[in-house]
Every structure is written in C-alpha cells, then in structure tokens.
Design brief:
mainly beta
C-alpha cells in the first residue's frame, strides 16, 4: 500500500490474502482494506483486476500482472501475461470480463514476469523456457478515437451484447451491473472455481464510469510495440547466428527472427512464425534468410534480410521441426534436415535463385537411423554446376557421417572410409572446404575428409 502498512498476495491455490507489512499478521476481513490506496499492483486476483480473467474456463492462466498506478486518474492501465505467451492491456480498474482490451502475441513460451519500467514508457516481459526478455514501447493515444493494428478481446458489442452472451451460455458469468456484482448463480460458480472471488470487496466509492457501466465499453488508450529482445534461442538451435550482407546479425529468439544492427543498437523482427524457432540460415551473399519453427508440421520461411518481408513459404515436408538449413553457394539450392524419426534430408531448387515462383522440391531421402545434426553443400570447382559424379553435400550427427550424390531426383548416400579400429563419435558440425569436408566432434577433434 502507499502508506507501507499493508500487503496482499496471490497463491497457486487461486486465493487472495492480506497481511500487515511490519508483522506479517494475516488479515481475514478484506472489507477493512476496501479503500486502501495501493502503491503497486502485481496481483492478478483482486477486485481491480477481476476483468483480466476470461468469463469461461478456456485454459488461460494469468501468470503476471502490473499496473502504472502512479498516473492516478490520468488513465492507468493493467498489463497481463498468460501461459500462452500473450500480453494484454486493460483499463484500470478492470471489473468486467467483457471489457475491451488489446492483445499481443509476445512469446512461444508462458510469460513468467512482467513490469513497467522508465515510468511507463517501457514494458518488460520475461518468458519461460526460451529464456528471453522482451522490451516493449508503451505508447499512449493522443486522441480517444485512435485505433491500432492489434486484436481486441471481449469488447461489448454496440448492437445487442445479450445475444452473444446467450449464444455462449455465459448468462451466469455476465456482470449484472457496472459495479462488478454477480448474479447468485454466477457467484456460486466463480467461488468454486476461483476462490479469490470470495475475498474481494468493492471500494466504497467507485469511479463514475465503473459505476454507470461505461468503463467496459471504452477502448484501451495505449498500445505496445516490440522494440528489443534480449536473449537467443541457443538451447535447441544449432549454427543459427549469421551475418547479412550489410553486417547485421540474424539470430533466433523465441518465435522471432531478430536482425540486429550493432552500430545503431536497433533490431528488426521477422514475425511470421507462431512457435519456437528451430533453425535460421542466411545465404552466402547475405540477402535471403531461411528459418523454420519447432512444430508438428513445420514450413521453411524464406524472407528478405533487409526488409524482414516474406519472400516464399515452402510446402510442408518435415515433421516436428527442422534441425538444419543450408543455402548453396549460388543460392539456387537449399538443403534441410528434419527432426522426424527418419531424420529426412531434402534439397529444394530455385533455378533463378530468387525463391519466388520457381522453387520446387528437387529430392528427399532418409538421413540416418541416428539423429542428423548438420548438412553442408560442396562448392563446385570454379563456381560452376556440380557434375553427377561429384558429391552435392555432406551430413553428419550421432556416430555417423554421410556424403550425398544427386542422381535424377534421388539422393544417394555414401559412407566415408576410415580405420575400423577408430570409433567415430558424435559429430556436431561440418562444412565443405573446396574438395575436402571438415567436421568437428564432441571429443574436440577436427576431422578432414577427402572426396
């Protein structure tokens, strides 16, 4: 609280508790603190934030919450993060589950922490397994009617909201009036599923727009814009940090492919993916980028490194993700390794090298019974086309290394020859250097192969 006398907290049992700040004594009567002015608001289960929860059980769990309460009556907002990686903005207080809000898909992992910084000009969000910190620019509207390109959730309809409520069977959960009072049936249902509802008490003096019910119809007077991502998706990606033709760095972070300009300390984002990134690769000339996400049926996205605009979306072929993507030196071919049980290897062709309308699947084959961790094209002598007798690419991974020839539309594999007394360990990376192929192992050895 502002006078530093009281604290409130939420727990994993969906309960709301009040305590004395100096002694830690539990306060069982919530009505005693109904008019307390709070200095911070990080509890998502309170009277002021009951509207951030959906009116029905849809699996949403609000995992983080913060509000810029220092603005007083000058339009404070509530920012929330949930277990689906979404960030929402609400007006404060949010007492109706049908109030207007703005939604942003922030991460492929649950949002674990969320906090306003630099006053309220910046919002910081922290995601879970992908270990990324997202920095958002928080911009307030100058006019009431300003609209932004984002999704609105649960906004009341101008025509007849009762029809919508009846259609989804939400009569018991709909608010009876603007004060946040619930009908008898709705209260019993909510207390059984949300125990904290029994501990909330409305303030004795309500804001006018909350009292007359117009607050739920007002749009949120601000927006968020992604400005920076701190972190890299390095735990489950390999060789995914590359340079572009102008020296920018391309790296994966959560579901974003970030293009970082180290001179101006700014980032651009390719936002075409919806799930966690699994692989990023850049063409030899640094113009095109190919990326893929970790999902059941991944697609390879080819996009421009300068504009972050989509160029081509390749058809679905692999399953469960793409481990490695490599461009050929002339940018006319792409090799991809899937995370499916066959560890499939595919070669894609674009004769023009533009990867627009002329791209097609050239050949595909099963990689190996063991996981394949990398692939790399051979560079034809003199920069010309490779002959049918020469190897097209090499691949390797756990306990194996293979070389591949393209014969028609078939990829044929060949094992290297080496002393049988030597045990080949897991190979983590590999690259063709002229007519030789270099590979590195977990033991720290560097192997040079002829052929």
């Amino acid at each position: 609280s502002e006078d530093s006398l009281w604290m409130r907290s939420n727990c994993g049992g969906f309960e709301l508790f009040y305590f004395e700040a100096d002694t830690g004594l539990y306060i069982p009567a919530a009505a005693r603190l109904r008019d307390t002015v709070w200095a911070t608001h990080t509890c998502s289960m309170t009277w002021q934030t009951q509207g951030v929860w959906p009116p029905q059980k849809d699996g949403t769990d609000v995992t983080a919450c913060d509000s810029n309460l220092f603005r007083g009556d000058d339009g404070p907002v509530v920012a929330t993060g949930d277990n689906y990686g979404r960030v929402r903005l609400f007006r404060y207080p949010s007492t109706s589950s049908f109030c207007c809000s703005k939604l942003y898909w922030a991460s492929s992992s649950p949002i674990t922490r969320l906090k306003f910084a630099c006053g309220d000009s910046t919002l910081l969000t922290l995601s879970g397994p992908d270990k990324c910190i997202f920095q958002w620019s928080h911009v307030r509207d100058r006019e009431e009617g300003v609209a932004f390109d984002c999704m609105d959730r649960r906004g009341k309809l101008e025509e007849d909201d009762d029809d919508v409520v009846g259609l989804f069977g939400l009569q018991d959960l709909a608010l009876a009036d603007g004060k946040g009072a619930l009908g008898d049936l709705g209260l019993g249902h909510l207390v059984s599923s949300r125990p904290w509802m029994a501990a909330i008490v409305a303030p004795s003096t309500l804001p006018p727009d909350v009292e007359d019910g117009t607050a739920a119809k007002k749009p949120v007077p601000c927006e968020l814009a992604m400005s920076h991502v701190m972190g890299i998706q390095s735990q489950r990606t390999r060789s995914s940090v590359r340079y572009t033709n102008v020296g920018d760095i391309v790296l994966p972070a959560s579901k974003y492919a970030c293009v970082f300009n180290k001179k101006s300390n700014t980032q651009r984002f390719y936002e075409g993916h919806k799930n966690e990134m699994s692989c990023v690769s850049v063409s030899r000339d640094g113009v095109l980028v190919a990326s893929a996400e970790r999902t059941e049926r991944p697609q390879i996205h080819i996009w421009d490194a300068g504009t972050c605009g989509l160029v081509k979306l390749l058809p679905c072929l692999h399953r469960r993700g793409v481990i490695s993507i490599q461009f050929s030196s002339d940018r006319t071919k792409i090799a991809s390794v899937g995370a499916d049980q066959d560890h499939s290897i595919a070669v894609w062709l674009s004769p023009s090298g533009e990867w627009t309308a002329d791209c097609q699947l050239l050949a595909s084959a099963k990689g190996d019974v063991n996981p394949v961790l990398f692939c790399s094209f051979y560079e034809p002598p003199g920069g010309g086309n490779s002959s049918p007798e020469s190897f097209l690419l090499g691949s390797g991974g756990r306990f194996h290394l293979k070389f591949w020839r393209l014969q028609g539309r078939c990829l044929n594999s060949y094992y290297p020859e080496y002393d049988r007394s030597f045990k080949l360990s897991t190979l983590l990376c590999g690259c063709a250097v002229g007519s030789k192929f270099a590979s590195g192992s977990v033991s720290g050895h560097l192997f040079i192969w002829n052929g």
